[in-house]
Amino acid sequence: MADETWNEPGTDTATIVTKKIKEPDRYVVLLHNDDYTSMDFVVGVLCDIFHKTPEEATAIMLAVHQQGIGQCGVYTQEIAETKVALVRQRARAAGFPLRCTMEKYR
C-alpha cells in the first residue's frame, strides 16, 4: 500500500492527513483444454487478445494442451473480465468450445 500525505483543505493550521491507498485486486486469466479447439486458434487468441509473442503463445498453448490449463496473464478485475469475454466471443464465433476463466490471484 502506498502512503499519500497532504494538508487538509479549509484549515488554518497545517494538518497532515495520511491515507492508505489500497492496490486493486489482481486476477489471473486461464485457458482450459478441450478436444475440439485447434492449437492454431489458441495461439492466435493469445497473440491478439493477450499480446503474446508467437513463442510465448505457443508455450502457453502447449501448457494448456499438456497440463489441461494455462495462464494467460494477471490483470485488474475489469481488464481480466474484458479479456475473458473477448476470448469467449471469438471462440463462439469460430465454433469452438474454448473455456476461458479468471480467478483471484494469490
UniProtKB/TrEMBL annotation:
UniProt KW keywords: Hydrolase, Protease
GO molecular function annotations of the record: peptidase activity
Swiss-Prot/TrEMBL GO biological process terms: protein catabolic process; proteolysis
Transmembrane domains' residue ranges: none
Domain Adaptor protein ClpS core: 22-101
Family matches, as Pfam families: ClpS
Function: Involved in the modulation of the specificity of the ClpAP-mediated ATP-dependent protein degradation.
Subunit structure: Binds to the N-terminal domain of the chaperone ClpA.
Family: Belongs to the ClpS family.
Protein name: ATP-dependent Clp protease adapter protein ClpS
Lineage, top ranks: Bacteria, Pseudomonadati, Thermodesulfobacteriota, Desulfovibrionia, Desulfovibrionales
